[in-house]
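Internal ticket - ligand job 318, N,N,N-trimethyl-histidine:
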Amino acid sequence: MLKTAPSKSSSRLITFQHDVITGLADSPKRLPCKYFYDKRGSALFDEICELDEYYLTRTEQAIMDRYASEMGAQIDAGAMLVEYGSGSSIKTRILLDHLIDPVAYVPVDISHRHLQRVAERLRADYPHLEIIPVTADFTRPFSLPTPRKPATHCAVYFPGSTIGNFEPAQAERLLRSITERCGDGGGLLIGIDLVKDVETLERAYNDDSGVTAAFNLNLLHRIRDELDADIDVEAFQHVAFYNDAASRIEIYIRSLKRQTIRIAETSFQLDAGELIHTEYSHKYTIEGFSKLAARAGLELHRSWTDDDQLFAVLHLVV
Ligand code: AVJ
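stdout (structure tokens):
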């Protein structure tokens, strides 16, 4: 038989296994939140976005609906719009509707199949816009495609408070890479979740119907099914709370008993009550975020928020 390089999907699996084993070997234990988004995880996330408790998506969408024409006017003609973590590209549509002669839309997402389906629907709805999906983990270096019509500049759209997943130093590094990618004339349109009362924040990550819990614990299902791991997924629980000092929601998976999980040849011991960190969701003030962005070479140009100041969309320029 011919020897071939590992297929894309098998190398993805190797990376997943490597990241899981590295994270569980760490102390405290952790699992990267980017692995939430397999097919089921992406569907659960879409469900979260519909929850009463989860104000983020609805509020950001309302800001987009209300101000998309103002936002579109900030982005010069001839732009290649690159979206980081595009998911279902729902909020993007209103922006696309208001951009002046964009050259291409490049949704970047880690979930390959979901991205392909979304791109197909966009092509049907925007026949005059080149849609170039890129399957990539935007936290790692990746190259941008060259559109058929040359772009005059690159505008990055980074909605959804995804930046909140990163610790400030990482966020700064990611913003710096966006600055370098965009170059002069480029800019960033970014959605950030604002600091607010603890009750509202904690409710958003502990919904009554348990969708967020299922979303978090889906990570264990993925590890069990894709890595053929030995895990009693019923013996774990979702935990989410606000850390005021760090201005962030912290999400964990708690082991309900002392137990061992096995992945490939490696075993991991968990104590009863032990936490596996899965996600941070940082909350910012507009001022605080602007300072962070300034350190990465981006200057606040405009900001839009809702009447209750729950969420903000910022336009920053290089
Ligand atoms: C997609 C990162 C914005 O932090 O609110 C929702 C993910 N996690 N519920 C967030 C999430 C649990 C979400 N982001």
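Auto-summary: The first helix runs from residue 8 to 25. The first strand starts at residue 79 and ends at 84.
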